[in-house]
Amino acid sequence: MKVFGFAGYSNAGKTTLIEALIARFVARGLRVSLIKHAHHGFDIDRPGKDSFRHREAGAAEVMLVCDKRWAIMHELRDEPEPDLEQQLARLAPCDLVLIEGYKSNAVPKIEVHRPANGKPFIWPENPSIVAVASDVAVAGPLPWLDLNDRAAIAAFVLNATGLS
């Protein structure tokens, strides 16, 4: 599996970009998976539902299965958060895994940046960032990709991963 990441501050456009790229890669016949790192607790379940009640009762894992999809919810309880390598090992084989987040991990990644958000660049402190995608041209030592040119960004990712 090839792995490529995207990093940036909130509201920079990471999710929208990744959504468009997944559609492009799948249209090319690639099998694509995604790992998104959330900095805050999240819950894909709702109080009162059977699966929620089973987790609350103490189940370590709860698997939901239907004719369209399946999902496993794993409760960490007092275990440490798994690192990216452990999460990658849990995925089914695919051609490309896109990563959203995991800024400090050594996976090559594009920084998605919008100057209007007033946030600093991540790349000066992060050697795994190999390009910057922004809605405004950015001068610097890294390649600049127009955030609105999805074809160019897709080509960059495919070239960087050897999938072109």
Q: Which key terms come to mind for this protein?
A:
164 residues, 4 helices, single chain, 8 strands, six-stranded parallel β-sheet, Rossmann fold, 25% helix, 24% strand, alpha/beta
Q: Overview of this structure, please?
A:
Helix content is 25%, strand content 24%. It is α/β, with parallel strands linked by helices and 164 residues long. It has one domain (2-43, 81-161): Rossmann fold, CATH 3.40.50.300. The strands form two sheets. Strands 2-5-1-6-7-8 form a six-stranded parallel beta sheet, covered by helices on one side. Strands 3-4 form a two-stranded antiparallel sheet. A hairpin with a 4-residue loop joins strand 3 (61-65) and strand 4 (70-74). Helix 1 (14-27) packs across helix 4 (150-161). It is globular. Pfam families: MobB (PF03205).
